[in-house]
Design brief:
The complex is a heterodimer of chains A (495) and B (336). Chain A has 22 helices and two strands. Chain A is mostly helical and 495 residues long. Chain A has one domain. Chain A has a two-stranded antiparallel ribbon with strand order 1-2. In chain A, helix 4 packs antiparallel against helix 15, helix 4 runs parallel beside helix 17 and helix 10 packs across helix 19. The model of chain A has no long low-confidence stretch (mean pLDDT 86). By secondary structure, chain B is of the alpha/beta class. Helices cover 44% and strands 19% of the residues of chain B. In chain B, helix 3 packs across helix 10 and helix 3 runs antiparallel to helix 11. The longest helix of chain B has 23 residues. Chain B starts with a helix and ends with a helix. About 5% of the residues of chain B have low confidence. The chains are: A mainly alpha (495), B alpha/beta (336). Chains A and B meet through helix 3, helix 6, helix 15, helix 18 and helix 20 of A and helix 1, helix 3, helix 4, strand 6 and helix 8 of B.
């Protein structure tokens, strides 16, 4: 108990709260991500004690992952990659005047996901760490394939267009250095392309910049206001929350597991949870048109990644994503070496990290719920003022990722691509999925083949890999089969 | 009027945020202000930019930030760290290769970006565009196996591979990085290419976790990635790539002791654009030497596991240029 008193000092609590607020701001703005927030504030923690330092950094991490949902719901531009799936249902809900309900659902789902992953982290760390280790290249490939299989579900009815979009994403993600030989591919001698297509810049372009273009069309010339209805209603009701109990649990588990597996991340988690929620739903046709379940799944899963990603970091010293890689640096700066020894030699610090992570989630819930009234005011800003600001932030954000002017060009280009895709009804999410998953699928396929000395059966003889490959096949064909069955059942009446 | 209030608010928010992001990008005043050709005596007259070609928060970034404080104390002008990550360090290097020869843009580079990447592909620079100032850190590589591996010495690993060529796999942080290129260089020298099968991962952490999970047979990784796992009993290091035994691990023999000509390290050092006046370079060299004796810098380097290894401009230049030529030959052979 002495430990707890030390940990919960006023300064630690304030650092944590400040971190959450900073994180939400970073998360909400397209282009500024949780990763950037943590990296930017890392030098400020050099002089702090370990727990204070993690109070701040974990606050930024948790707040940043959550903050992305605010702009995703209100202006259809995900603040961070992890909230891209939130757009699909969050924005339609806002369009129906349910912005406050949608935001509160996102906040509560994030809180539940975050807290459940904390519980997993605290109670099951050593066991969960074993999962991380049992994943070799063959298993990563299978998980990547599984991720890709949900393209069918994201294709909103037109599988061909969905596949086209996904293939385009896979293609542009091959630009840059070959992961196995180190040779340059599709760079055309341009040094800015050697690092590949920057994922966040592409996301900003596809979702945010393209949305600005689309909005230009609908601005009412007289008032400058877009067609978005006024905000009514209150926060989401207990009934809707209760009906999502299983969804919360399932999405949090998906998020935690994806967090634990190094090198996958919150972007993958939210899409997988979204797909599973849709598949389990009694009315999957509502998804994409404003289903609370969609928002709940995406947000619970991406915040559940936070606790999951800390499992391999603390127990094995292996960072699960870019944010935790920066945190590894933060731990080492404090003279702490993550790994099994941390738990025996620095028990107090570990307890501190747990407490701060829980506290960060509580602050996120409070700040989020109290802030909803302020957040929805964004909707009252006339479109002709808001959209130029969004566009400018997009470009500032794209530049800030790598301090590269060429990334602004990339965001603009992807904005045009996204806009054209919208015009011809090609869904954009499968393209995003392709960009996220290409590096996982390609590099790990080739690594697995190298390790097995060219024997392709490695993917089906390793049990975890086999299971994921079977699920992928099922998941890919499920929307097609279920659609067929439904048509058969309903007969010609619907057709 | 309400609407006006909101737009004011929006404006303030945007302003504050632009300042934020300005900071995030590590304000680069140094680039813009045009400097009169420095004779050297009055250098530096304005803030100096240190380009770090790696992401913020990483080892190189933390070193640069620690040194920037003491450099400012020594030379009286701010030293501003500007992160230009991407292309294995090539993007930042190319930018400095295009900068002015005035000593106001420096780079903290590393063995890979300086001596391997430009040999691998055309990245817009070679070794000719840089004037090396000082090496600041040097971390050895280690060959490590899992604790339950049958291999107890590096000799046993090679002996087994001789009988089963290509069967053993080794993981590294990535294709075309020093861990990979130097090992292939050794095998070429021994005329035994293909003895081991290389598995490139995405970063040292992934290579370490693959070894821990038993996905690969051994890893070639930097000492700081191996030592924590050694201490916790998960890994056994069989050899280290230093000339003498590494101070941190006195029990681990060197490759040399076992008869393998493998002496290599992941070094970090500073350079300016070639053609920078000698007086400026000397002033900087002195400032780096002093900075590395500063207690706070020593403390920070220790915390981030970067062994300080100062090397003056002359020896550092020789090391850089000779490694460049050596790896040029290896990479050419690898890319055949």
């Amino acid at each position: 108990m002495f430990e707890l008193v030390d940990v919960l000092s006023l300064s630690n609590i304030l650092f944590n709260l400040a971190g959450v607020v900073i994180g939400i701001i970073f998360g909400a703005i397209p282009g500024l991500t949780a990763t950037m927030g943590v990296a930017l504030f890392l030098p400020f923690t050099f002089g702090m004690d370990p727990v204070a330092s993690f109070a701040l950094l974990l606050g930024i991490y948790v707040g940043g992952i959550y903050g992305g949902s605010i702009t995703a719901i209100l202006i259809k531009t995900p603040g961070t990659p992890s909230s891209a799936a939130t757009v699909l249902d969050g924005y339609p809900l806002a369009e129906q005047g349910k912005a406050m309900e949608s935001l509160s659902m996102a906040t509560i789902a994030s809180f539940i996901g975050g807290i459940l992953s904390c519980v997993a982290l605290i109670l099951l760390s050593p066991q969960l760490a074993k999962i991380a280790l049992s994943f070799g290249p063959a298993e990563y490939f299978a998980v990547g394939l599984f991720g890709l299989s949900i393209v069918a579900a994201l294709s909103s009815g037109n599988l061909l267009k969905g596949l086209l979009s996904a293939l385009f994403g896979l293609l542009i993600a091959t630009v840059g250095m070959d992961p196995v030989t180190g040779a340059m591919r599709f760079t055309f001698g341009n040094i800015n392309l050697t690092g590949g297509i920057d994922f966040v810049s592409a996301l900003i372009g596809m979702f945010a910049v393209s949305e600005v273009f689309s909005k230009l069309e609908t601005i009412n010339a007289d008032t400058g206001m877009s067609g978005l209805k006024g905000v009514k209603g209150k926060i989401v009701g207990a009934k809707i929350l209760a009906s999502n109990t299983v969804n919360f649990l399932r999405s949090s588990i998906i998020g935690t597991i994806i967090g634990i597996i190094p090198a996958t991340g919150s972007g993958v988690a939210s899409w997988l949870a979204y797909n599973e929620a849709k598949r389990a739903s009694k009315h999957p046709e509502q998804f994409g048109k404003g289903a609370f379940e969609g928002v709940a799944a995406s947000e619970a899963a991406n915040n559940a990644v936070t606790g999951g990603a800390l499992v391999p970091l603390l127990t094995l010293g292996i960072p699960g994503d870019v944010v935790t890689a920066v945190m590894l640096g933060a731990l080492m700066i404090q003279g702490l070496t993550p790994g099994p020894l941390l738990f025996t030699e620095n028990r107090g610090v570990v307890t501190g990290i747990y407490v701060m992570l829980i506290l960060a989630n509580i602050f996120m819930l409070l700040v989020g719920l109290l802030g909803i009234n302020a957040f929805v005011k964004i909707l009252k800003v006339p479109t002709n003022i808001l959209m130029p600001i969004v566009l400018m932030l997009c470009f500032v954000g794209a530049y800030a990722i790598n301090n590269r002017i060429s990334d602004i060009g990339l965001a603009l280009l992807m904005g045009i691509v996204g806009y054209l895709f919208n015009k011809v009804d090609i869904p954009v999410p499968p393209m995003l999925l392709g960009i996220i998953l290409q590096p996982i699928i390609e590099a790990n396929f080739r690594r697995a083949m190298t390790i097995s000395h060219g024997d392709i059966s490695t993917f089906v003889t390793r049990p975890i890999s086999l299971v994921f490959i079977l699920i992928s096949v099922g998941s890919f064909f499920w929307p097609i089969i279920s659609g067929y069955i439904k048509r058969r059942k309903n007969g010609s009446a619907v057709a | 009027m309400k609407l006006r209030k909101i737009s004011y608010l929006a404006m303030v928010v945007v302003l504050v945020l632009s300042i934020f992001t300005g900071c995030a990008s590590g304000a680069k005043q140094g680039d813009n202000a045009s400097a009169a050709p420095a004779a050297g005596n009055d250098y530096p007259k304005q803030p100096v930019t240190i380009v770090v070609p790696y992401a913020a928060g990483g080892g190189a970034d933390l070193m640069a930030r620690a040194l920037s404080t003491t450099l400012q104390k020594e030379l009286g002008q701010p030293f501003i760290v500007s992160n230009k990550p991407g292309g294995s360090g090539a993007i930042g290097m190319a930018e400095v290769a295009r900068s002015k020869e005035d000593g106001y843009t420096l780079i903290l580079t590393s063995v890979g970006a300086a001596t391997i990447t430009p040999n691998n592909s055309d990245v817009g620079y070679t070794n000719k565009e840089f004037a090396p100032i000082a090496q600041v850190a040097d971390i050895p590589l280690m060959l490590a196996v899992k604790a339950d591996s049958p291999f107890k010495t590096v000799q046993e690993v090679f002996d087994y591979a001789e009988k089963n060529p290509g069967k053993l796999t080794y993981g590294t942080a990535g294709a075309g990085l020093i861990q990979n290129v130097s090992m292939e260089g050794l095998l070429m020298e021994m005329n035994k290419r293909g003895l081991f099968t290389h598995v490139p991962f995405n970063g040292g952490a992934e290579a370490v976790s693959a070894l821990m999970g038993g996905q690969t047979d051994f890893a070639i990784a930097i000492a700081t990635e191996i030592i924590p796992q050694m201490k916790s009993g998960q890994f056994r290091a069989l050899a280290v790539s230093t000339a003498e035994r590494y101070t941190e691990t006195p029990d681990v023999p060197t490759f040399k002791e076992s008869g393998y000509n493998y002496e290599v390290g992941v070094w970090y050092g500073f350079a300016a654009k070639a053609g920078t006046p000698d007086a400026v370079l000397q002033k900087l060299e002195g400032a780096f030497q002093k900075s590395l004796q500063d207690p706070e810098v020593i403390e920070t380097f220790k915390k981030i596991n970067q062994p300080i290894a100062f090397m003056d401009s002359k020896s550092f230049t020789e090391k850089w240029m000779s490694s460049f030529e050596k790896f040029k030959a290896v990479v050419a052979e690898l890319n055949k």
